[in-house]
Known about the structure:
By secondary structure, the protein is α+β, with helices and mostly antiparallel strands.
Amino acid sequence: MTPSRWPAGLETSVHALKGGHTFVARTPDGRLTYHGVGSDDATAEQAAWASYHLANDPGHEHDFDPGQRQDGFGQCRGCSMSDTQAFEQRRTIDHGRYALAHPWPAGWHVQGGASGLVIRRSGGTYTTAFVEVAPTDPQTFIRGEGATLVEAEQAAWEQAQRTLACPGHEFETRGYTNGAGFCRHCNMFASGAFDVAVVGNPCVTCGARTNWTRVAGAWYCQDHAPDRAERARLRAEAPDDGAGDSPLRELLEAMLVDDDD
Ligand SMILES: [Zn+2]
Ligand SMILES: [Zn+2]
Ligand SMILES: [Zn+2]
């Protein structure tokens, strides 16, 4: 068994490790690897040669095992050849720990996690796996939840398919006063579906519909928004001390979800 038997294109190396000698033959691009393990260099090379021979037998069909990896790598259960492109590489989320099952369009941003905290509008919290998708066409935001990332992605995928198949969106506010709306047919979310001048909250000074600012529980349009000193005075006079419109409270409100969805 001489190294000259190896095709000129393969790069070979031999490593003596504690557990035995390993012979590796690899394509220059690093994609395919044949390796053999033995008690000395010669037997290791013999094993690698057998792997190469079997892998390139016209009658052999690879049976790739990805192991714990999700980056496309696979090792053949039959000939032990490994291929860094054995599987179609799938997009991953959750720091590479979850490979998406569905073919989301490349331009759509997808993110998610195995455990996210959700605050209910009525109080209380729960944790859930979630997948969030920002499609580019149509411009919307989709969030799927489930016991696992698989379920969460499935929920998001089904919502995306409903939206893409919708015969024509018809939006309703569902109580939102910031212009956001949901399609009554496909449930698609759209920011800016409504004019805030129509669906906004009445300014306490002039009555114009607005979503400009809220101070101590009351809404003000841009023209009548209190200045810094006035805000402080209004908050000090408010029965609840004005804590209701602190930046933290506003952030939490924006994150709230209704219980019935
Ligand atoms: Zn094989
Ligand atoms: Zn729709
Ligand atoms: Zn006003």
